[in-house]
Write a structure and sequence with these properties.
The protein is an alpha/beta fold. The chain folds into two domains: about 250 residues, Rossmann fold, CATH 3.40.50.450; about 260 residues, 3-Layer(aba) Sandwich (Rossmann fold), CATH 3.40.50.460. Helices cover about 45% and strands about 15% of the residues. A nine-stranded mixed β-sheet has the order 1-2-13-12-7-6-3-4-5, with helices on both faces. Strand 3, helix 3 and strand 4 form a beta-alpha-beta unit. Helix 13 crosses helix 15.
């Protein structure tokens, strides 16, 4: 592997970790837990792993060690997120510390590697090549779902062959839900294999009282904010364009909100607020156009608008339409595929309820077509394929044109659209994510040593110095609820949406009118790896506000 100068320098970076993971480690267990909702149904589905206690690790005297080596398997599941390699490095170092002959096996290209028995041993030489680097290329990732008994049994064959005692699945809410289902199955048949999860997603929607943040969110937001800051600098220099910037975040607006806190755009739409207020698409257009018109009155015919990827699903009328489309296509996809392209629009219109049929018919041809494209593995519309930024730009332009005819708008409107997604998913991890991910991996190795299964690795108190972080594990069943998938109710980890009464949103709400009219842009610059601690080790603004109530720049 040819390395850049930055990679070479980063190889020497030693991640910081909690004091509780150093030296000998003892475990402390809390009270029994229950699922976040649907307790009776979840308990019936997971009789062997429900109600487990939250655990924390504390430093004890002596050195950690075991009489026998322990072999562990690891899977990277779902979309990439900065820091995944450090999670694997943390697992490796942890199990080697338990016993020098312990082995770590990586399954190739995600869960399918387990099913198809594609794997490689991750040696110290391989691990050292990937420390503190971005991407998932050490073993690759995939989106195959682990959900059937046949898959579980096929996986168990290779786990037994390699004498693997524990499997760590690094993924988002759906991947960790699958880890929970697998843990339950292996426990029910006394397979002798522990299954653990690790919270990964740049979207930031895998978090709760025990999981402060999912890894990769910090780095991705810093990368997007750098790009937004660059655009705003150009915007403020040319003074003639409105930039509509869509950022990742299918089910929640955490990325959009964090980027707004870092860069101070003129407009940032928060999907959760749109849903709570029951706003229509026209309401959103009216708001954005209103900000543009007010700035134009001050001679400012430029600005930035941040749009969350999943916005269209949070508009109540659109959400109802998409829900009916998802259910319909889940049962009629083959028939729909046989319809000629020229007739697909009329076919869908004829199959929907009158209310949703009317909404679908009113949409531009391109957006209507994008709503019927292939579903993701969970049966949902792929919102990243819907060009919401272009839809809003076109509709805002029309609104301003109408206002101009009525004498309500006298400015000049020119727009440029952007979508920031893949630019942030494999970035080299920030110091925060490098430290956090390594600690998550090391914690997972301690959960292995403690014989735990059905747990997610947890590291808390991460706005404090790393030495004060608290490592432990959370039962995955504690996070489950029932949701409709492919037309059926399924147990899944409840997504964490932006809290409209939470400190991050309230701070933005307090500032947004000022940011809308004035040009108060912040230009964060590139991610800082080296330099003053107050610069290079900062956690996200979201985490700062949630944990301390204060924000620093």
């Amino acid at each position: 592997m040819t390395k850049s100068a930055l990679q070479i320098a980063r190889t020497n970076y030693v991640p910081k970790m909690p004091e509780g993971l150093k030296g000998n480690v003892k475990i402390a267990e809390g009270a029994a837990t229950e699922s976040v909702a649907d307790q009776k149904e979840i308990k019936e589905l997971f009789p062997n792993t429900y109600g487990l206690p939250i655990v924390t690790f504390k430093q004890a005297e002596g050195e950690i060690g075991a009489s026998d080596p322990v072999n562990v398997g690891v899977i990277l599941s779902g979309g990439q997120a900065p820091g995944g390699h450090n999670v694997i490095a943390g697992i490796f170092d942890g199990i080697k510390r338990i016993h020098k002959d312990s082995k770590l096996y990586g399954f190739i290209l995600g869960p399918s590697g387990l099913i198809d028995h594609q794997y490689k041993e991750l040696t110290s030489e391989i691990i050292d090549e990937y420390r503190n680097t971005g991407g998932f290329d050490i073993i690759g990732s995939g989106r195959t779902k682990l959900e059937t008994k046949e898959q579980f049994d096929k996986g168990l064959i290779i786990l037994k062959k390699l004498d693997i005692k524990a499997l760590v699945i690094i993924g988002g809410d759906d991947s960790n839900t699958n880890a929970c289902v697998l843990a339950e199955y292996y426990k029910s048949i006394n397979a002798g294999v522990q299954v653990l999860g690790c919270p990964k997603t740049i979207d930031g929607d895998l978090k709760n009282d025990q999981i402060e943040t999912s890894f990769g969110f910090d780095t991705a937001c810093k990368v997007y904010s750098e790009l937004i800051g660059n655009i705003q600098r150009d915007c403020n220099s040319a003074r003639k364009y409105w930039h509509f910037i869509k950022v990742m975040g299918r089910s929640a607006s955490h990325i959009a909100l964090e980027c707004a806190l870092q860069t101070h755009p003129n407009v940032c739409i928060i999907s959760e607020e749109v849903e709570q207020k029951g706003l229509s698409l026209d309401d959103i257009i009216e708001y954005i156009a209103g900000v543009i018109a007010k700035r134009a009155e001050n001679g400012l015919n430029f600005g930035t608008v941040i749009i969350p990827e999943g916005l269209i699903e949070f508009i109540p009328a659109m959400k109802n339409l998409i829900s009916e489309l998802n259910d319909f296509l889940a049962h009629n996809q083959e028939e729909f595929d046989l319809v000629r392209r020229s007739g697909k629009r009329e076919y869908i219109i004829s199959k929907l309820s009158p209310e949703n049929s009317e909404i679908y018919a009113s949409l531009p041809e391109t957006v209507a077509r994008q709503l019927t494209l292939d579903r993701d593995p969970h049966g949902n519309v792929q919102v990243s394929l819907i060009e919401t930024e272009k839809l809003l730009t076109e509709m805002v332009s029309k609104k301003l044109s109408d206002w101009a005819k009525e004498g309500k708008y006298k400015g000049k409107f020119a727009s440029i659209t952007h979508f920031f997604g893949y630019e942030g998913r494999c970035a080299a991890p920030s110091n925060y994510d490098a430290d956090y991910c390594y600690s998550l991996g090391y914690t997972a190795s301690m959960l292995v040593a403690s014989g735990k299964t059905g747990y997610m690795s947890s590291v808390k108190n991460t706005t404090a110095p790393a030495a004060e972080w608290v490592a432990g594990g959370v039962p995955i069943t504690m996070m489950l609820n029932l949701e409709r998938r492919h037309g059926e109710m399924k147990p899944v980890i409840q997504k964490a949406l932006v809290k409209l009464d939470g400190a991050p949103f309230l701070y933005y709400k307090e500032k947004r009118e000022e940011w809308a009219i004035h040009t108060d842009y912040v230009y964060p610059g590139p991610i800082q790896y080296f330099g003053p601690t107050e610069v290079c080790d900062q956690p996200s603004k979201t985490l700062q506000l949630e944990q301390t109530g204060k924000i620093t720049f």
